[in-house]
Write a structure and sequence with these properties.
Strand content of chain A: under 5%
Structural class of chain B: mainly alpha
Number of helices of chain B: 4
Distance between the termini of chain B: 90 Å
Helix content of chain B: over 70%
Structural class of chain A: mainly alpha
Order of helices and strands of chain A: HHH
Number of helices of chain A: 3
Number of strands of chain A: 0
Largest interface: A-B, 31 and 28 residues
Number of strands of chain B: 0
Shape of chain A: elongated
Shape of chain B: rod-shaped
Number of domains of chain A: 1
Distance between the termini of chain A: 67 Å
Largest sheet of chain B: none
Order of helices and strands of chain B: HHHH
Helix content of chain A: over 70%
Oligomer: heterodimer
Largest sheet of chain A: none
Radius of gyration of chain A: 19 Å
Radius of gyration of chain B: 24 Å
């Protein structure tokens, strides 16, 4: 087995685990926010589930797609550094998306509260 | 061109960086609950959910950054214990300074959020919102 394959086989479980775990956590704790934005309980639940599926598709898809631009690896130290930098890149990307989502949630909540105040 | 010293450096660096992230995150988000309660006016469910969401973001960002700066260039002169210690010191020191900056950014955000939410809560009612005396 060459070094690149070893790298892929460590990278995929790490990134897959982190993406799925974070998705689960956001799904659980974001439910209350979705419920606030959408009054109907059933619709809120459905929207939350569909958001989770969309998140999985985009992030897992990109993580697998990013596999194509790895460089050729020739030693153990390069395996570690390549796996670390590639998963670090994906994780930072997840963090940025997450903060963007938080910002959106805050803005939606604020607008909703403002509208309630007016009525 | 196998260089086992670089592997040693990685094996030392990774646990230290991850442990630092974990300790800082645990401390920060244990103490941020009081801010969150203030921001959401004592509504515990949404305060705790927000706290958890921010914790996830903090972990993602710092673990990602720790992994991104791990790489030691293969062209660097790396053959003695001295260079090993120097490189490790540079990486770990740099990472803890970065963590400190992020910690203060988060604290600043909590203080700002609390101030804003207090300002909103004690807003004077506008004249047109007040019930008019003598109206049906």
């Amino acid at each position: 087995m060459d070094y690149n394959t070893i790298g892929y086989l460590t990278y995929l479980p790490i990134v897959g685990f982190i993406t799925i775990y974070v998705g689960k956590l956001c799904h659980t704790h974001g439910h209350i926010y979705v419920k606030q934005a959408i009054d109907d309980e059933d619709t809120a639940h459905a929207v939350n589930n569909m958001l989770l599926v969309g998140y999985y598709l985009v992030n897992l898809g990109y993580a697998v797609y990013a596999l194509t631009d790895w460089s050729y690896i020739t030693s153990l130290s390069e395996v570690i550094s390549e796996v670390a930098s590639q998963s670090g890149y994906i994780i930072i990307l997840l963090a940025l998306l997450h903060y963007f989502n938080l910002l959106t949630l805050f803005l939606v909540r604020k607008r909703k509260l403002n509208n309630q105040h007016k009525n | 061109m196998e260089n086992s010293l670089i592997v040693t450096a990685y094996v030392i660096y990774l646990p230290i960086a991850l442990a630092l992230t974990f300790l800082v995150a645990r401390n920060l988000f244990k103490n941020s609950k009081v801010f969150m309660r203030d921001i959401f006016h004592g509504r515990d469910d949404i305060a705790m959910a927000t706290n958890r969401l921010f914790e996830i973001g903090f972990y993602l960002m710092n673990v990602g950054f720790a992994l991104l700066i791990l790489e030691i260039s293969r062209y660097q002169e790396f053959s003695t214990t001295q260079t090993l210690i120097e490189t490790l010191a540079e990486k770990i020191g740099g990472f803890s300074i970065y963590l400190g900056v992020v910690l203060f950014l988060n604290l600043f955000m909590f203080f700002r959020g609390r101030r804003k939410s207090k300002a909103n809560a004690y807003q004077e009612p506008r004249i047109e919102d007040l019930p008019t005396l003598g109206a049906e």
